[in-house]
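Table 4 source record.
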Amino acid sequence: MAAIPQDILDRIRALERQVRELSGRAQMRPALNRITNGRVTIAEGGSLEVLAPDGTGLFGVGQFGPFWNHPDGTPQQGVIMQREDGTTAFTIRASPSAQTGGAGTQAVSIWDRTGHIVLGDDTTSGRGIGSPALPMPFQPLPLGGESITSSSFQNCWFASVQAHNPVATVQLEFAAAPGSTCEVKVQYRLASESGWTDIDTDSVSAPSSATSPVYKTAWYTFSLDRAEFEQLVFVRIQARQKSGTDGVLCNCLGGYTRRTYAASDVPEPPTAAPGTFAARVAVDDGPGQGVEAPVQPPPFPAPVPFPEPEPAPPAPVAEPGLHPIDE
C-alpha cells in the first residue's frame, strides 16, 4: 500500500486557497484583449491588421508585402486605411507608379472610391500640395483682350496666388491681324522680388493675304522657383505687335497650379526665408499694371515637433528555474 503523507489534508487546503487567490486576481486584472497602461511595440518588420467580419482589411500599419518594396528591394513600412467595401481611403506609402511619386518616396494621401488621390502632398519635390490642383485666376489689365498696336510689350493679364502646389500652368490665346505678328511673354516673380523672370516667349503671324486674324492657343508650364510654401507669387502676361500695323490680341484662357509629374518639374528651393512680407514694386509696375504694393499673407507658425518618447526600460532577466505565475 502506498504511503500517504501525514499532511495531505493541509496540502489540499493550501492548493484550494491558492486556486481561490488566483481566480480572484484574474477577475481584477484587465482582459487579455485590453491594454490599460503602457505601450505596445511592434518591431523587426512586424505589422498590425484590423479586419472586418467578412475578412475585408480596414486598417494596417507596419511592413507591406513585396509588391510595395522600395527600388532597392527593401520592404516598405507604412499605413493604410480602407472602407468596409474594401476601397482605399487613406495611405502613407509610396506607389510603384511614377504618376503617384514613385516607389522611393512616400506620400500622405486621401483617396476616393474610384482610386484617385483627392488630397495629398507632393512627393517628388517634398514641398506643398500634390493634389488637388488649384485654380490661378487671372485679372485683365487695361490691354487684356484689347487690340494692341504698340511695338513694345504691354501688360495684359495678371495673377496673384499663394504657392501651394509646386508647378503652374497657363493657357493663352493670341492673334495677329493680316500682315502683323503678335508676340507674347509669360513672366513670373515672387512678391518679395523686384524683378521679373521671363518664363517663355511665343508668337503668331498672319500673312498679308489672310482675310481674318490668325489665332494660336498654347499652354505654358513652369515651376514656382524660389517660392516657399504659401509664399505669394505673381504671374504676368505681356503682348506686343512685333510687326505690322493692324493690331494684335492676347487673351488668357485660364491657369492653375499642380503637382510635379517628373523630377524636371521640381522648383528651385527658396534662397532664404522671407524676412518681410511686404512686396517690392517692380520698375514697370504701378496703378493699372497689376499690383502696386501687395501684402504677403503671414505664414503659419513653424510646426512644433512632438517630443520623442522615452525608451522603454529593459526587461528584467528571469532567473533559471520554475516561477509562480504572478512573476
